[in-house]
C-alpha cells in the first residue's frame, strides 16, 4: 500500500506565499515520479509542477517563475513553494505519486489540500 499525506494549504491574500508538503510512504520502489496537481471548481485537474520519469522538473505555464517544486528522494517527500499567489491559484491541490509496476504506471493521490487566495 502507498499513502500520501499532504499539509500546508490555507487562506492567503493575493501576493502572499504558501508552502505545500507531501510525504509518501509504503511500497515505493522502482521507477517513480511525483508531482502536484490542482483542481478548481468546475475545472479539470491539471498538473502544476512535478518531475518526469526522465528527471526533468516541469511547471504549468501559469505558475512559472512563481512556484518552486522540490523533491527529496531519500525521504520520498515533495514540496511546492508558492509565491506571488493570485486568486486564480485557488483550488484543491493534490500530491501525486506515479510508480512503474510491471509495465504500467500506477497513480496514487493524496487527500487534497485547499488553497484559497482572496482578500
Describe this structure in words.
The protein is elongated. 0% of the residues lie in helices and 58% in strands. With 119 residues, it is mostly beta strands. The model has no long low-confidence stretch (mean pLDDT 95). The chain has strands at residues 2-7, 10-12, 18-26, 32-39, 46-51, 57-59, 67-72, 77-82, 91-101, 104-109, 113-117. The strands form two sheets. Strands 2, 4, 5, 6, 9, 10 and 11 form a seven-stranded mixed β-sheet that branches.
Provide a brief overview of the structure.
The chain has strands at 2-7, 10-12, 18-26, 32-39, 46-51, 57-59, 67-72, 77-82, 91-101, 104-109, 113-117. It is built from no helices and eleven strands.
Helix and strand arrangement:
Elements: E1 2-7, E2 10-12, E3 18-26, E4 32-39, E5 46-51, E6 57-59, E7 67-72, E8 77-82, E9 91-101, E10 104-109, E11 113-117
Parallel strand pairs: 2-11
Antiparallel strand pairs: 1-3, 3-8, 4-5, 4-9, 5-6, 7-8, 9-10, 9-11
Amino acid at each position: 500500500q502507498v499513502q500520501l499525506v499532504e499539509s500546508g494549504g490555507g487562506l492567503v491574500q493575493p501576493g502572499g506565499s504558501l508552502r505545500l508538503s507531501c510525504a509518501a510512504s509504503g511500497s515505493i520502489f522502482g521507477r517513480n515520479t511525483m508531482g502536484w496537481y490542482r483542481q478548481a471548481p468546475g475545472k479539470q485537474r491539471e498538473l502544476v509542477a512535478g518531475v518526469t520519469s526522465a528527471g526533468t522538473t516541469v511547471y504549468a505555464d501559469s505558475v512559472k517563475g512563481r512556484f518552486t517544486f522540490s523533491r527529496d528522494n531519500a525521504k520520498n517527500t515533495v514540496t511546492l513553494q508558492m509565491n506571488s499567489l493570485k486568486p486564480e491559484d485557488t483550488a484543491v491541490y493534490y500530491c501525486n505519486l506515479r510508480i512503474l509496476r510491471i509495465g504500467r504506471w500506477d497513480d496514487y493521490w493524496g487527500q487534497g489540500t485547499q488553497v484559497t487566495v482572496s482578500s
